[in-house]
Amino acid sequence: GYGHISSLAPALRTTSNEHRDLRQAQGQISTSIPKGKISRFEQIPRLEAGERRIFGIGQGNLRATPLQVANAMAAIARGGMYKPPRLFTDDANDPEFASIDLNISKQTLDVIHNGMSAVVSESGGTAYNEFVHSGLAGQGVNVYGKTGSTEQPDNAWFAGFATDGAGRGIAIAVVVEGAQRGSTDAGPLARDIIQFCIEAGYIGDAANLSF
Prior knowledge:
The chain has six helices and seven strands; from the N terminus they run H-E-H-E-H-E-E-H-H-E-E-E-H. By secondary structure, the protein is of the alpha+beta class. A hairpin with a 4-residue loop joins strand 5 (about 140-150) and strand 6 (about 155-165).
């Protein structure tokens, strides 16, 4: 419900970097789709009690960017530790930013991990058919995912993360605008991106991050 979502608010934000000129914006949780373009915080409609109740069943006007959702997935993969995103434009080592502990219990994280694993690895999982023959597990990679779709407008989502036995991991969020199903529309793209990351050496049995 809304209480759990609001407690994860730090993971649904981007952080500006004065050396990168990145735009900063909070995710929006609003009660109706406003007319026209929102340019100021006060233009976002107030959240009403009825809207909060339906967040728990995946309904309501909860808005977030792909980067914000990928950050939330990364925080879950790290055991509830959030780190601000960084954009690297060269090989220089940028300073490490402080992590934020979201105080998610191990029990809750275990439930989330098990559920997201079942999405791609168990018969009946919404993305099972897209991942069952992917060969990712055979390359030393475990995938955790969540499919979804939105209305007004229609978009297909796949969000999740992948890890290997050495503790390396990647987080991912895929949006296909105008599509209907996160499983069959966004899922294959996410699968192929994970495979690309394996081949590029970011993750998996053959990963080599020394380049």
